Amino acid sequence: MSKAVQLVTTLTPMDGKKDDVLKIITDMAVEVEEQEAGCLGVDVMWHDDTDTFILVERFKDQAAFEFHFKQPYVVAFKKSPVALTCLEAMDVKICSVAPGTFSR
């Protein structure tokens, strides 16, 4: 059985662009959960201390993760005006569940 994959993305909006960034990532999160059977869930969180969004996407396996990056809405996000003009920084980490821990 292939291991679950988690994508943890930290998005830092430019000043005054928080609402623009929130709209596009929540719209995309809904689309991911509706269109991708291999997606186990998407969490969008806001961290007040660092003024960043933290997006956690969970996929059942590597194949589901790779499928995600081929979707038109993911490709479009990378080229969208929000990604190009509203983000100060974006950090993406691909993670797996630590051995000996529990994840559904």
From TrEMBL:
Domain ABM, residue spans: 5-97
SUPFAM superfamilies: Dimeric alpha+beta barrel
InterPro entries in the record: ABM_dom, Dimeric_a/b-barrel
Alphabetized PROSITE patterns for the sequence: ABM (PS51725)
The protein, known as: ABM domain-containing protein
Species annotation: Mytilinidion resinicola
Upper lineage: Eukaryota, Fungi, Dikarya, Ascomycota, Pezizomycotina
